[in-house]
């Protein structure tokens, strides 16, 4: 592996994307030493691509513009040069689309809609195989490996989906069918967007199950149970034992036992994997159920929050944005520290942003 490639791998994602752009823009600088390279990836280095008025020098190289557009999206707040880079590349690219050959035009349109690092990786892999295949400059070995990789993972995902379907069918009662969303495949696909690698198979499946059950709670709460029934369900969850299902209405009993078993199994498995945060999987589930209950209370009381801020006090939580991030980290195993877990639970800006994004959709 050349020093150049090694170096890119060592950099953070942001720096890697910018370095790629720089490499592209400056031609080969592999021979330069590391010191120069690390300077190159600083955002103010983009200054050199601007003219005296601070505008980006006009360029007609589409691939170069695309690379800059992509790289600049990894900006952080206050990196004005990169804000300008986005505005500049966007308007240049838009004005060029008409004149490009159809394939390149499609690539430009696609990138303008979603910069490449924001795409779902596996979906992007499939798309890019088709794009790459048509290139005269392709490397057939890489293409073949990409296809093999894609097909191997696809086979694994099918196995997972089979297991998940059997799990869901194992729910003895079909009572949920009257009111709940029945979308196991969709849930699995969503979780694939979070963790797609083969060694994360268990995490992916457990996440899909966890979230399927959360969505079931959401539907019970919004669409079926009475307030008293829902509150009883929450108390049973808090007690976390099978006996406490006895007081529940008939349609809830099997659901309750199923939830209890599924989540207890996940916790057992995590403990076997020596995961220190297994208990959180349950705590977060119960916390989620309570948050739906809080929203419902507003509805029952016909209460309309006066300000968006007040609404967010409940709805940031009930959007599950923190919970999904939290459970994903826990299921990924060793990478999680207690500090990281506490950080997420404090609803930092980053997690609020996920919620705001969901809301804006
Ligand atoms: C294709 O890529 C592989 C892996 O990077 C490399 O070893 C091989 O030399 C390349 N083949 C050609 C023809 O460039
Ligand atoms: C409740 O569930 C039924 C059945 O799935 C669905 O048709 C209906 O739209 C849902 N109602 C609400 C308020 O979500
Ligand atoms: C995850 O949830 C647990 C249990 O509610 C909480 O104590 C912890 O701080 C949370 N961590 C994150 C990353 O949200």
Structural class: mainly alpha
What pattern of helices and strands is seen along the backbone? HHHHHHHHHHHHHHHHH
- Biggest sheet, open or closed, and with what strands and sense? none
Q: What is the gyration radius calculated from CA atoms?
A: 25 Å
CATH-defined architecture of the largest domain: Orthogonal Bundle
Mass-distribution shape = globular
| pLDDT averaged over residues | 81
- The total beta strand count reads 0
pLDDT < 50 runs, ≥5 residues: 1-41
Task: Please tally the helical runs, counting DSSP H or I stretches of 4 or more residues.
Answer: 17
Structurally, how many domains make up the residues? 2
Helix content: 55-70%
Give the percentage of residues in beta strands. under 5%
Query: Which superfamily, in CATH terms, is the homologous superfamily of the largest domain?
Result: Farnesyl Diphosphate Synthase
CATH class of the largest domain: Mainly Alpha
Ions, cofactors and other bound molecules: 2-acetamido-2-deoxy-beta-D-glucopyranose
Distance between the termini: 43 Å
CATH fold description of the largest domain: Farnesyl Diphosphate Synthase
């Amino acid at each position: 592996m050349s020093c150049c490639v090694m170096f890119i791998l060592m950099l953070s994602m942001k720096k890697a994307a910018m370095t790629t752009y720089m490499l592209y823009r400056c031609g080969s600088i592999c021979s330069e030493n590391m010191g120069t390279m690390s300077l190159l990836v600083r955002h103010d280095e983009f200054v050199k691509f601007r003219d005296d008025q601070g505008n980006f020098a006009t360029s007609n190289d589409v691939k170069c513009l695309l690379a800059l557009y992509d790289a600049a999206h990894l900006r952080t707040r206050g990196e004005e040069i990169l804000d300008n880079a986005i505005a500049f590349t966007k308007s240049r690219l838009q004005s060029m689309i008409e004149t490009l050959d159809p394939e390149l035009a499609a690539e430009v349109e696609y990138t303008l809609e979603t910069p490449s690092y924001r795409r779902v990786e596996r979906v992007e892999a499939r798309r890019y195989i088709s794009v790459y295949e048509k290139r005269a400059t392709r490397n057939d070995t890489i293409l073949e490996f990409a296809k093999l990789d894609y097909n191997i993972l696809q086979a694994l995902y099918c196995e997972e989906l089979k297991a998940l379907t059997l799990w869901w069918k194992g729910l003895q009662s079909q009572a949920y069918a009257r009111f709940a969303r029945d979308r196991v495949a969709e849930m699995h696909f969503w979780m694939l967007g979070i963790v797609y690698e083969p060694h994360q198979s268990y995490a992916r499946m457990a996440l899909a199950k966890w979230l399927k059950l959360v969505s079931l709670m959401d539907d019970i709460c919004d669409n079926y149970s009475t307030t008293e029934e829902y509150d009883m369900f929450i108390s049973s969850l808090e007690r976390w034992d099978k006996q406490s299902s006895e007081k529940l209405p008939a349609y809830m009993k099997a659901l309750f036992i199923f939830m209890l078993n599924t989540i207890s199994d996940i916790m057992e498995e995590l403990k076997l994997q020596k995961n220190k945060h297994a208990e959180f999987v349950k705590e977060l589930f119960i916390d989620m159920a309570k948050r739906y209950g809080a929203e419902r209370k507003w509805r029952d009381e016909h209460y309309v929050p006066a300000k968006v801020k007040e609404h967010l006090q409940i709805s940031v939580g009930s959007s599950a944005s923190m919970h999904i991030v939290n459970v994903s980290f826990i299921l990924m195993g060793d990478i999680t520290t207690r500090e990281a877990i506490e950080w997420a639970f404090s609803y930092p800006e980053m997690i609020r942003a996920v919620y705001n994004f969901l809301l804006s959709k």
